[in-house]
Amino acid sequence: MKSFADLNLSPKTLHALERAGFEHPTPIQAQAIPPALAGKDVIGTAATGTGKTAAFLLPIIERLSGKSGTRALVLAPTRELALQIGEELERFGQARHVRGAVVIGGVGMGGQTQAFRERREVVIATPGRLVDHLSSRTARLDEIEILVLDEADRMLDMGFKPQLRRVLAHLPKVRQTLLFSATMAGEVADFAREHLRDPVRVEVARSGTTAARAEQRVFLAGHEEKLPLLLALLEGNDLSTLVFTRTKRRADRVARSLERAGHRVARIHADRSQGQRRAALDGFKDGTYRVLVATDIAARGIDVAEIGHVVNFDLPHVPEDYVHRIGRTARMAASGRASSFASPEEMDQLRGIERLTRAEVPRAEVPRDSTVFQDELKRAGDVRDHSGPRRHSGGGRGAAPARAHAHGRSSGGRTGQHGGSRAGVAHGAPLRGSA
């Protein structure tokens, strides 16, 4: 097994790694750091949780140490991922006097403008907010030597291609580009061919490969059975659990239902303010909340050391998102469980996932005999019978109106600890999709 000393890193960086508890490089770090240090373009295909953030930050810190001015730009699809990268840069770059600025939506532009004036060495940004600064002429990128596109597949899937093109137009033509992605096909492959020069290709996990240590299973369940099923699974263990839903509205309803059932739960999606999102994530990390309900867009960048259980309450429309979701558990050397709920209307998505991953997801039996399952199913039925028929308008679930109503309602108008007004989508948010 290689050590970090084998990668030609400086003694100061080796000391910072040792102080942070990093003993050996992960495969993506061992393979990507040497060519990145040498100034070559790199394409890294690696699943979430493999240590790719350090794979590009360590070469940046090494190459920029002693230089002044904004020399590196890291683009990430979401605020959470950008903040995570910023924290890692602070941890490893402080000893080398390499400063960072996180440029994201959901917060004021004043502090970010000041950071640009200070010409901090590394800018970590979401494409939308960076374009805002370019439009306002508060950002200059003409000295950039290193560009990193992190989770490039997700940025393109979220509709950021126009913003990426605008940002690239402001960068020097001669530069180093590092592109990291969990999948490498279609639009992201075309983008890489257009913007990278003779890149070194590093593929730690075959494109479309899920986290190897994640125990995967799928429950074939009706829409009205999903919430009872989730409650039954939560009752069966005490694992920290990340629940993915397809829409913001569904995330709110699932969170309220879990809260009503007595679970410590937080939620994170694009309509939550940056402060609310950060509080939810910090609470999930420190154990204040056992369950975090999230949409795909908001969940990118969730870096929690040990998420025991990932639940796909709704299957994603894009099969590659399944790979990213599963990557939230079994991170680094850990193991974890991934459970998916597939209604009859979602069988096409399930088949698409299995084609991408080249493997059948094992089927699991729905615990319909569980007392918790039966109690929730009965409660939902009583609510439906009491309320009468009601037209369902939204969510795109494809369920009959009565079923959708029974599944979606939980605690009436109660807001509990997650109440308050919703914030609008901030500048760093995607152009496409509503998650």
Give a concise summary.
It contains 17 helices and 14 strands.
What labels would you give this structure?
435 residues; 17 helices; Rossmann fold; 7-stranded parallel sheet; disordered C terminus; 2 domains; alpha/beta; single chain
Task: Characterize the structure shown.
It is built from 17 helices and 14 strands. It is α/β, with parallel strands linked by helices. It is elongated, with a radius of gyration of 22 Å. Helix 6 (127-136) packs across helix 8. The protein has a 7-stranded parallel beta sheet with strand order 3-4-2-5-6-1-7, with helices on both faces. Strands 10-11-9-12-13-8-14 form a 7-stranded parallel beta sheet, with helices on both faces. The protein is 40% helix and 15% strand. Residues 330-334 and 390-435 have low confidence and may be disordered. It has 2 domains: 4-203, Rossmann fold; 214-380, Rossmann fold.
